Structure formats: C-alpha cells, structure tokens
Amino acid sequence: MKRRDWIKITSIGASSLLLPLGTAFTLPKKHAPLLNLSAKDFGTDFLWGAACAAYQVEGAWNKDGKGASIWDTFSHRKNKILENNNGDVAVNFYNKYKEDIALLKQMNFGAFRFSISWSRIFPSGTGSVNQKGVEFYHKVIDECIDNGLEPWITLYHWDLPQALEDKGGWTNREIIDWFNEYVSFCTQEYGAKVKNWMVMNEPAAFVGLGYMLGYHAPGEKGPYKFLKATHHACLAMADGGRVIRKNIPDAKVGSTFSCSHIDSYRDDPVNAFKDLGAVKRMDALLNRLYIEPSLGLGYPIDGLPALKRIERYFEPGDDERLKFKFDFIGLQNYFRVVTKKSVFPPFLWSKQISAEKREVDMNEMKFEVYPEGIYKVIKQFAKYDISNIMITENGVCYKDIVGNGRVHDPKRIAFFEAYLAQVLKAKEEGAPVTGYFVWSLTDNFEWSEGYEPRFGLVHVDFKTQTRTIKDSGYWFRDFLVKNK
Ligand code: BGC
Fold it and tell me: Three-state SS for 339?
C-alpha cells in the first residue's frame, strides 16, 4: 500500500540512464528564473538546507552491529512495498555520506537535516549501546561541520527498533521511557557539536499510516491503536523536548509536523455548509492533533469529537506533561486536501476528493501541486503562539529527463520557484519563517512506494549508486549564491 494513501485515509472510503559523475560537476549555464526571486529577499539570516532520513538513505541495515527496525521487518514482508523493494542498501549513505555532504555544499546550502537510526545506536531499543553506530553519526556530524554546514538532527524519523515494537511499540506507554533513554544518550553524546534538534518527524504520518491504516511499518490497524499511539507519541515528543533542553541548554529544540491546507469541495448552497464541517474535522485530524497538546491547547476535540476517546489513555498529570514550548516548529507541506461530507469513514464523516478526480496539477505520487497551500498553512500555524517556523520539508517527485550527462527537471524548478514565492509572501506579511529545507538531498527509498518516486535535487542511479546533480540542484546553487 502506498504513502499516498494517507491522503486517502480520509477518502477511504525512472528511472534513468547512467550519467558520468564528472560531467555533472562542470558548471551548466545559469537557469533563467521564472519569477524574479532571489535568496536575498528572504534575508541573510534565513537558513537554507536539504533533508533526508536514516532509513530512506543509509542502507547498511544489518551492518556494524545495527539492530533491526520496524522498517527492516516491514519491507522484508511480501507485498508491502512497491515491487517488494526495501531499504537494505537504499542510497548507501552509510558509505557515501562524504560525497553527499560535498554535493550539498556544492549547491551552496548552509544546513543538512538528517535523522539518527535508533536501532543503530541501541540495537535492542534500550540498554546496550552499539559503539560503531555512535561513531558513524560522529563522522557525519564532523563532515558537516568541516564543510561549513550546520547539522540539524531529527531523533525519530519512523524507524522504531523492532525489539520495542515486539513489546507494543507506540501503543505501549513504556515507550515514553525508552524514547527518553535514547534522546538522553544522543543529546549527551552529540550535544557539544549539534545545536539544532527535532524530536520527531511528522507524528501524524507515522501514527496514522503505521497504527491506524497499516500501510506503513509496523502495519498495525484500528482506531484504538491509533489513539493510544497518538497519546504516547505526544507525551514522548514533549518529554523528548525537555530532555534535549536539559542536556543542551543552548540548543534550538523543535519537532516537525505534516500540514496541508484544507478546502471544501462543494460551494452550492445545499452542500457548502455540510462540507465546511468536513473541513473542520479533517483539519483537526491532519493539522491540529499533534501540535495543539504541546501548545497547551489539549487535543482538538472541538474539531473532531471522536477524539474524546483518547482520554481513556490519560494518567494523572498528562495534561501538563503534554506541554512543551518548542523553540521552533517544523512545517512540512506536500499537498492540499479537498474534502466533502461523507457517511464513510465513521467518526470522521469526511472524505477526500483526489487530485486525479479534480483533474488538477499533480506530481508522480498524485499529490496536488498547489503552491498557495504552503502560504496558507504558514498563515494558519502563525496564528498559534509560535515565534519561529521552519519549513523542514517541501519538495516534489517528477520523472527526470536524463541524457547527455545531465538530469533535466524543469517542473521541479518551477515547483520550487512557485512554492518559495509563497513562503516569501507569508514571511513578508509577518509570519516568523526563518528557514527552508528541500526534500530531499538525493533520490531515495520512498517508503511504501519503493524507489519509484524521485524527490532528490541529486539523481541517484540505484544500480551503480552514481550521483548526478539535477538541473534543480544547479538552480538552487545559483539561487543561493546570491545570498552570500
Ligand atoms: C516524509 C518523508 C517522505 C516525504 C515524501 C514526508 O512526509 O517525512 O520521509 O519521503 O514525505 O513523501
């Protein structure tokens, strides 16, 4: 089942030729901007980076003492991933991190966001530490610093140690302690060198897809598992924030959230009102559920009354424990949601109308390309008591045109120009946006979609692991040089 189906929750109801690496490093001619954008417009303090995640890039799934994660187990099961692909090798970042960091620098970025694989550090989730795994992340961090790039670390990008899933994973409340042990170790180990930390990547996605719909690891299903896992993830996220702050007093502490602007489908007088109700429920589920508890607002039961059932998992003190004032909030935007009232699924009573059905501009994963969406979600989140918003992921998958030593991706360039113009608009209107990370540095393992969708600024030939900067990567290089 597919990543794109998270969008469908609610609707329940290239590859390429090999390019010689050498040619990629010669300077292609400048790309004429479609819009008159310059990185300078964002201010010299604005941070520009590119992102990736451990399971999607590292490979070396069982090397040097690493324990299995739920993604190793899940991707080794039949028919879970497109063409039964897995992340055993991925893009071999474990061995090629130096090359990838050099490419990032070559494109003039200032920061690199990557995640730590929990089971590379603690093969069984807790207890004994795998020293080789610890050393690997030291090497990655040092390589960033030596190249003048700020390391931005995500502690949890979906690859839970399998040993912990065997004890219930996110549905077992003990996970809060397991997670604290891991966060505590990493921040003590790397805190002197790394000052920018994200506790989690998109809890809405890993809980929704992994514990309600079963499309992602660990493949669990059902509303109760979903609510339990949600509550434990929210508690662990706030606790994790506290642990980072205690261990690294000068750290910038954040967490990342998937967010989508939501519109109603129909505007005729009979149905418009009904669909507005659907928008409200969907917004509570997709945009508000994981951020509002940390802000002290509790779960958004006003928007989605079925969430009231989460209270059965509360213990005394949880209301307070859910709160944590992050230094920054990471917003990650990929698509807009258009919804209407529906009798299915129960409790949500809303379904999504796909981009395909609406016949709008789409990417390879059938996500709607809707640049205004990023402006609208920034504006929506800026209404909270948040002083710093980072765009920690934004990007697009298209088929690349590969040939003559180059990788042409004009649609990706147009995508970034249009989205960045919207980010700038929100910033100029006063939203506290301070940085932008492209998803993704390289093509990589796209979860249940395997290696088919390519999000990278750098093309990877998955057979030879050859890297080639795409035109969009050169576009960023030229765009960012103006920032210097
Ligand atoms: C995830 C990435 C993923 C991207 C594109 C984001 O929600 O954080 O891991 O590759 O979406 O689907």
Answer: strand
174 labelled catalytic: no
In 3D, which of 290, 198, 175 has the Cα closest to residue 244?
198
Whether the CB of 90 sits within 6 Å of ligand 1: no
Domain that includes residue 13, residue range: 3-481
Task: Please give the pLDDT value at position 32.
Answer: 45
Closest ligand 1 atom, residue 367 Cα: 12
* Token pair of 176 as six digits: 């809060």
What is the Å distance from ligand 1's center to 122 Cα?
A: 24
Cα 12 to Cα 207, 345, 348, 361: the distances in Å are: 17, 6, 10, 22
381: CATH:
3.20.20.80
* Substitution site in 447, 449, 452 for ligand 1 pocket (most atoms within 8 Å of beta carbon): 447
Structurally, how many domains does the chain consist of?
A: 1
Which residues does 356 contact at the CB level (< 8 Å), separation at least 6? Answer: 362, 366
Q: Whose CA is nearest to atom 11 of ligand 1?
A: 334
User: What's the whole-model pTM score?
Assistant: 0.94
CB 277 within 8 A of CB 222: no
Catalytic residue among 143, 165, 189, 202: 202
All residue ranges of the chain with pLDDT < 70 are 1-35, 482-484
Residue 51, CA distances (Å) to 109, 113, 212, 380, 393 in order: 11, 4, 27, 24, 7
What pLDDT does residue 9 have? Answer: 47
Active site residue 220: no
Look at residue 483 in the predicted model and tell me its pLDDT: 55
With a 6 Å cutoff on the Cβ, whether 200 touches ligand 1 is: no
CA of 332 to the centre of ligand 1 (A): 9
The minimum-distance atom of ligand 1 relative to the CA of 158 is: 9
Contact 323, 334 (CB under 8 A): no
**Could you tell me the end-to-end alpha-carbon distance of the chain, in angstroms, rounded to an integer?**
44
SS3 70: helix
Choose the catalytic residue: 58, 292, 364, 393: 393
Q: Annotate 337-347 with b (16+ C-beta within 10 A) or e (fewer).
A: bbbbbbeeeee
